[in-house]
Amino acid sequence: MASKRSRTASLRKTAEQAATTAEEMVKPHGFEFGGPIGATILTVSLPPLVYLFAFVCNDVTGCPAPSLRSPIQLFSNTSTQTVWEHGTTVLKQEVGWPGWAGLISIEGMVGTLAWYALSLALWAVLPAYELEGVELSVGGRQKYRMNSFFSAVTIMIACAAGTWVLGPDFQAWTFINRNYIQILTSSIIISFALSVFVYVRSFDVKPHNKEKRELAAGGHTGSIVYDFFIGRELNPKVNIPYFGEVDIKSFMELRPGMLGWVMFDLAFMAKQYKSYGYITDSMLMVVISQSVYVFDAIYMEPAILTTIDITTDGFGFMLSFGDLVWVPFIYSLQARYLSIHPVDLGPLYVLLILVVQGTGYYIFRTSNSEKNRFRTNPSDPAVAHLKYIETDVGSRLLTSGWWGTARHINYMGDWVMSWSYCLPTLAAGYKLTPMLLYPGTRMVTSEGMKGWAIPITYFYMIYFAVLLVHRERRDEEKCRRKYGKDWDEYCRQVPWRIIPGVY
Ligand code: NDP
């Protein structure tokens, strides 16, 4: 009890000491993500992109659908149909297109809503501790109810019990595998609905209100599409009968989507076991390394209070879609791939990938902890020897240790870890061929397909590099606005942005 209390106290201190000043928070700044045009393109194109991955890599004909290896042939003319009709008919068969109406189902929507209801119920009923966030520009700090680790462990124990009794036929796994596309559509609808809801409600925010509501500095530009995308209100809340007031952003950040990612991984592992009777080392590598990442984030829940997402960005389509659709569906692509095409790595590859994962995790965790510890208790012997700059606004910027090697060395660790999620798929690509001797079954081979699925199973590594570089630029701008000449001095002393000696 005492240790829990002291941990709570030290975590509160982290949030307080790392607090962005209220003055800095309200400073207006220009468009990001290409302004209204970029926001429109992203809002319109991201949902189809997630469907594209879901259909192109499938359990009907292959990953990618075989005809996509030569789209020119696919769209070559035939005597009876137009080029377009012929191409789309073949493609629809190869990807298992369910028709427009088949993209959604009552079962998929009810199951997805039940998942949100479960997350909410656990948030409300399980024991929790309360922390305050950073100083708000309207004055005061918002309180956050923290129990996502407890909640995730409860769900995992229930799933372990279900799997113990029913094996891969446990309903959570069969539901996900049976309704994958319909859960995707339901999640997209929920994320759009939520974005519209918070956008409309943001117009109720009054200056100097007592509810501690405020607009995000970069989120009220007047452009509807841009504000809808980037998020108008910083910390939207909703009062739900019997549950009380829920902070929408922090709830969505770690609960339904992040844990949804692990649930998908586990469902795909169950699918592999059901289809083949065993679980490959590649599948174990992906599921374990991704679960370590998710549970690390959930366990360190208080750390989200000082992330850009919570302190700076409003809650709009970017975070709503990112948290609820992009993370669970795009981040679990490798496990989905391996559920259909089992890859045996062997001890050497396993060891190599473990080294990559361990190196990335070591850099990521020790650098983040070093900064947290320094900001919490600078006299801690682990950080007391580190050099720093005392800035005019009061905070200290580390210039030695991890933070003396690059200004976002933690991003490098995070990116290296992302390799270990993709590498287990090796030179990805498979096709499924019906087995004539055993009607209703298909044989999976990589014949003629090797490497063709690399853009799908390695997409995460590439996308994540882009995200981190872009995020570093945004954070750099924020810090320059906040620290001015002190930040210039930090950049002079630590010239590398993410990878020492390279970038
Ligand atoms: P960081 O944890 O990197 O924090 C950046 C802040 O730290 C700065 O704004 C500044 O805040 C402070 N700071 C900067 N330099 C120093 C220094 N030298 N000494 C002390 N403090 C310093 O930001 P993020 O919120 O972007 O990332 C948190 C973690 O989440 C990262 O490890 C990242 O990789 C991960 N992440 C993962 C994502 C995913 O999709 N998997 C997405 C985004 C992030 P201040 O104003 O307090 O000085």
List the helices and strands and how they pair.
Elements: H1 2-17, H2 22-26, H3 35-56, E1 62-63, H4 71-74, H5 83-95, H6 106-125, E2 129-135, E3 141-146, H7 148-166, H8 171-178, H9 180-201, H10 224-230, E4 237-240, E5 244-247, H11 248-254, H12 256-276, H13 281-299, H14 308-311, H15 317-330, H16 333-340, H17 346-376, E6 388-390, E7 396-398, H18 409-422, E8 430-434, E9 442-445, H19 454-457, H20 459-483, H21 485-493
Antiparallel strand pairs: 1-8, 2-3, 4-5, 6-7, 8-9
This protein binds NADPH dihydro-nicotinamide-adenine-dinucleotide phosphate.
Structure write-up:
It is a single chain. This protein is mainly alpha-helical and 503 residues long. It has 3 domains: 1-30; 105-342, no CATH class; 345-503, no CATH class. The chain contains 21 helices and 9 strands. The protein has helices at 2-17, 22-26, 35-56, 71-74, 83-95, 106-125, 148-166, 171-178, 180-201, 224-230, 248-254, 256-276, 281-299, 308-311, 317-330, 333-340, 346-376, 409-422, 454-457, 459-483, 485-493, and strands spanning 62-63, 129-135, 141-146, 237-240, 244-247, 388-390, 396-398, 430-434, 442-445. The strands form 4 sheets. A 3-stranded antiparallel beta sheet has the order 1-8-9, with no helix packed on it. A hairpin with a 3-residue loop joins strand 4 (237-240) and strand 5 (244-247). The chain is globular and about 75 Å long. The two termini are 45 Å apart. 40% of the residues are buried. The structure holds NADPH dihydro-nicotinamide-adenine-dinucleotide phosphate. NADPH dihydro-nicotinamide-adenine-dinucleotide phosphate (NDP) binds at residues 18, 20, 307-308, 364, 368, 371, 395, 397-398, 403, 407-408, 410-411, 414, 471, 475, 478-479, 482.
